[in-house]
Sequence to fold (362 residues):
Amino acid sequence: MRRGVLGLTVGLAFLSGGQAFGDQVTLEEAIRRAIEHSPEVRAAEQEVAKAKDQRLSALGQMGPKLGMSGKLMRWDAPTDVSMGFEIPEPLKQQLGIQLPSAMHVMDQTTGDLSFSATQPITPLYALYSLYRLQGAGEKAAMAGRESKERTLASRVSEAFFGILKLGKALETTSAARSQVEAHLKTAQAFFAQGYVQRDDVLRAEVALAKVEEGQRQVETALAVTKAALNIMMGRPMDEDVTPVGEFADPPAPLAMTMEEAIEKALKLRPELAEMRQRVEMARAGRHAAIGAMLPTLAATFNWDRQWGNDFQRKTTYFIGGILQWDFWNWGAKFFQVKAAERDIARAEEGLRGLSDMVTLEV
Fold:
């Protein structure tokens, strides 16, 4: 199937004869279409959205936790408690009291409703470190998306200018073919008149075959490059496309020194920005691991309302604090901190290596 489509593309290149036709597109339009169509860029956008959600989730963990619980129960019968003794009626009248023989304790239907609020205090250190980690992760995802966009723009530009270059080459080979064909016709005419030898005709035929082969190679490369540009822009690969625009030939010289170019690249390259955020994530992870070693202190508030039970107050509430500290766990949390420090060292080494690679590329 791929060979058939490619053959059709090559056929279109032959039919074009080096002339521009089809959809005209500027470099800016080609890059815009490619970025809009790219599955890699769209996936990177989802990574950015996910990282933002994780950052907001980490932010929400620092606030008070609000909760509610309740229950409603229907018993088999109400509960009454007998006094266990009977006071004579004359004595009741003499004392002026009225005591029932049984006391009501609980209704047949009971229920309660409770609201609670808990605010972490010492865990805020670890939670804020987690928020920093997720914030750096969001920035890293944004830099990663930008890196993919720039890489795609570079590939589109390469194909765009490749088509222009191959178009010029096709014009050159077409002109050369016309000249060689004319030379061959002249050699054949001279041979027919006996002015040249058969070897001269054969040399002209060989020269024409070489020129035709070169032209076919240029046409094939042109068709393949157009197909690549079409695919990146989300178009059918067998459609013709013509790059248009005004470009300096040769390009203007670079108006900066090598040192300035390296400094600018180290500052602006998105892959370096992404790696710097990875270092920040590792550092925040270390602080989060340290926070896990601290005692857990939290403030709490609870409000409770109950129905159907005469032996309990209808409404109660309390304010208090909760302290918990697993002060000994055989070094498990300590070595988590050490492992986080290894992550920092690894990320820093990765940043240095990437900086060296960018310097070499410049």
About this structure: The chain is about 60% helix and 15% strand.
